[in-house]
Amino acid sequence: MTEYAGQGEAMRTLELLWGKAASPKRGPSQKTSVGEIVTTAIGIADSEGLSGVTMRAVGRELNRTAMSLYTYVPGRDVLVTLMYDQVHAELSGPPKTGHWRKAILTWSERLRELYSRHPWLLEVSQARPALGPHEQEVLEGLLRILAGAGVATAVRPSVTSALYSIVREAAKRKVEAAAESEQGAEWWAERAKALDAVAPDFAERFPESVAIARRQSRSGDQPWLKAAEESFTGAITLLLDGVEARSD
Amino acid sequence: MTEYAGQGEAMRTLELLWGKAASPKRGPSQKTSVGEIVTTAIGIADSEGLSGVTMRAVGRELNRTAMSLYTYVPGRDVLVTLMYDQVHAELSGPPKTGHWRKAILTWSERLRELYSRHPWLLEVSQARPALGPHEQEVLEGLLRILAGAGVATAVRPSVTSALYSIVREAAKRKVEAAAESEQGAEWWAERAKALDAVAPDFAERFPESVAIARRQSRSGDQPWLKAAEESFTGAITLLLDGVEARSD
DNA sequence: TATTACTCCTTACGTTGTATAGTGTTCTTC
DNA sequence: GAAGAACACTATACAACGTAAGGAGTAATA
After folding, report:
1. Which of B107, B198, B244 would best serve as a mutation to test chain A binding (most A beta carbons within 10 A)?
2. Where do the Tetracycline repressor TetR C-terminal domain residues begin and end (chains A, B) (predicted)?
3. Residue span of the structural domain in which A158 resides
């Protein structure tokens, strides 16, 4: 490994994120690349979850040992950071045109779809200001829409925070719903019976929760998915109404 | 372990969540309890993060072996679920009175403070419909406020989702900010230099992001904390404005 | 009193991330 | 061209993890 003038791992991680890692000048030619490793790891995460991404598993996929990966990447944590930034590249595209409300809704939906394609994103620790280029590009895209719409600078962080939040929450519910539909109806019936046995007063203690659950279960054959969809667009509409009320 | 009539682990987890696990009728008296184990585990998580909560560490704290914990709790995952529900008990209190906007803001702030006290909540996987009593109580509290305010039933899931989202996002930023202020100013300067070396065109590529970051760094000696605070109340205000616009 | 159900402990297994050391390859320098 | 530095990769090893299996001791039941 090259020396990094004492700048530590933060510098190394930034270099990797921005594809600016210096290529080696001597020694045997590398048999793979950071990009290939990250792509492979993403593939594993997509199909087996983040816990499936072990150094050994990634190495095996590339016909290499786990330890050889440490030539490219300083450790598993950084690999996950790189994966996180890399998938955000899927959202890069032409700038949105049209009405800003529509643009924001589209932005939100695209981000949510990203989370659906890569559910493991929800397992990645959020306490991590990575500053990767693709993640940053996504944020910048939203800020541009807000700026173009004439939303006051002071309000933009709030809107941004709220939108990200709503998208992630919606993605969570969608992932949950998918996992749950795998379980089958029998599992649900059993669980409901168990809950009743353990908390017979559930409906009395939590009438509002039960009312909403019942309301949602009436809306079609995929109740959870539909409910998630509705509360997603509903929440965004609400937020944008608030923004608009503020602009006046 | 008692047999659970083939109902599996879901039943066992629900019993533990609701404190309805049957106490043993024979054998030596138990030297600890589920509650003590959960409390101990929460203490460890508070001070060392969720990764510090190992079966061995919890056992050590209670002068017991890791394996003895399996008498009380079927495994680490369920222990984490119990921890998650348990801390939500800290929010139980008298129902809020006064204007509903104020009540919702208070609810949100209390939840955010819970996340601040227990930052590891953000590390807990959200893809998990636990149905624990304390978590449910918190949700029910919010729904009651909404119902009392006359917010339409159809809108409540949206508002709920958005509020939870905003709170969690704000907590994330607060946790980040705390972790970052530990790092000291030198670390930040170094990191800024590294970013400039790696992405000299950062300010040109992401002008809106940079503008906001600059704006936020002007607002006092704890820029991150203040920014988080502002975007938190800002986002909620925005959302409630939207709700109000909808009620008309 | 014998049996049963239970708690707790010891031991052990497989898996993880990664430190260390060694082998062989390629570029640089003399 | 030869020597040596810089590198890629492998093999081995270690500590820590969750937890399965088995056994010793204890208390209620029959």
Report:
1. B198
2. 95-246
3. 91-181+222-247
